[in-house]
Write a structure and sequence with these properties.
Length: 367
């Protein structure tokens, strides 16, 4: 481990310490007694170099400077200074939430844990224990542990989230939808498919209350429920739900293209478009899964194949990847041409022509 830390330059950020009895410090990640200190902020401590490295990669590099005024000012008599410190903590909560979401969208479950832990501890500091404001942290921690197959930890975290909801009668459909979606995914991982269906049904109900029945957020619940039905051998039901998801996303992506919305390929997690990008990464995986499912069927539905491939082509046009647009667009066109006078054929052809013209345009400075 020492050689790895030296190679990454992280050894310059830690200092071995021995604290007097009664003034012990505790590890940022595991809360065991700490023996190392971050030399930059000097307010963060670790039990060993492994946890220091995990925290640095996961979140600490981004928030090191922000922790100094927050943790060094414990008792602040001045009211204006207290408000300023509270604003810093609110900013810290938002950064941790976005970083945890970013790591999870990239499939980096272990790297997401430090940000999610910091989110939970800071939220408790600001809002108190067992409050509804802690639920985002519980759910992000649960998702990270689910990705690491730590189902016992997931069960405990979701129990804490359920308890917070029970103690908060004001919790609205947004919180309920997020909780039921996490519970549904947990029961799916545990193999409790009927329980998973129950929670996904509640997820869809509360998501439709918050966003509408035909929203893209609600459609994820339909997708997760369809996956359960397929696993149970109820392929026709699953296929029907997949079709609803595909139509919802086709409408959404068509609308984005009409308004000429462009989403950059690289985006800082603190920017407003971060959520849209992480959401589109997830949607790419969902659409690909549905397309692969359809292509494996004995009797393929050409209309569904065209719809899904067209969705993927539009998605990647928004992301600016012309090669993927042409690949999925060609698949969509071939499927649509199997159906006489199919209503998507013309729009798919226009999309392919648009991309081909963009590829032939001279680039700035090329002349």
């Amino acid at each position: 481990m020492t050689s790895k830390l030296q190679a990454s330059g992280l050894t310059s950020n830690i200092m071995p310490l021995a604290f007097p009895r009664g003034k012990e410090k505790f590890c940022e990640l595991c809360k065991r007694e700490a023996y190392l200190q971050c030399t930059q902020c000097q307010v963060t401590f670790y039990c060993d170099a492994k946890h220091q490295q995990a925290d640095w990669v996961g979140i600490h590099e981004r928030i090191c400077h922000l922790l100094v005024p927050i943790r060094s000012q414990i008792d602040i008599p001045d009211q204006a200074a207290r408000r300023e410190n509270q604003l810093r903590k609110t900013k810290l909560i938002e950064i941790c939430r976005l970083v945890a979401q970013s790591k999870l969208s990239e499939g980096k479950h272990e790297e997401a844990l430090p940000a999610a832990h910091c989110l939970l501890y800071t939220s408790i500091d600001v809002h108190g224990p067992n409050t509804i404001q802690l639920i985002p942290a519980y759910l992000l921690l649960a998702e990270a542990n689910m990705g690491l197959d730590n189902l016992a930890a997931v069960a405990e975290l979701l129990s804490q989230a359920e308890w917070a909801v029970l103690k908060s009668p004001e919790s609205g459909p947004l919180i309920q939808h997020q909780l039921h979606r996490s519970l549904g995914r947990f029961h799916t991982s545990a193999g409790n498919l009927e329980d998973a269906l129950y929670h996904f049904a509640n997820d869809i109900y509360f998501a439709s209350e918050e966003y509408g029945l035909d929203s893209i957020t609600t459609s994820k619940g339909y997708f997760l429920m369809a996956d359960i039905f397929v696993r149970q051998g109820k392929v026709l039901i699953g296929r029907s739900l997949y079709s609803k998801v595909a139509q919802t996303w086709h409408n959404h992506l068509s609308g984005l293209l009409k308004t000429h919305v462009k989403i950059p390929q690289n985006c800082d997690v603190s920017s407003d478009s971060f959520y849209e990008i992480s959401q589109q990464v997830e949607m790419d995986e969902m659409l690909r899964a549905m397309l692969e499912f359809e292509q494996k069927q004995f009797r393929r539905d050409a209309a569904q194949t065209a719809l899904l491939a067209h969705c993927l082509a539009m998605l990647w046009l928004l992301r600016g990847d012309f090669q993927k647009v042409l690949g999925f667009g060609s698949t969509a066109l071939q499927a649509s041409q199997q159906i006489p006078k199919h209503d998507l054929t013309e729009s798919i052809q226009r999309l392919l022509q648009q991309v081909q013209s963009l590829q032939t345009e001279p680039q700035p400075g090329s002349g």
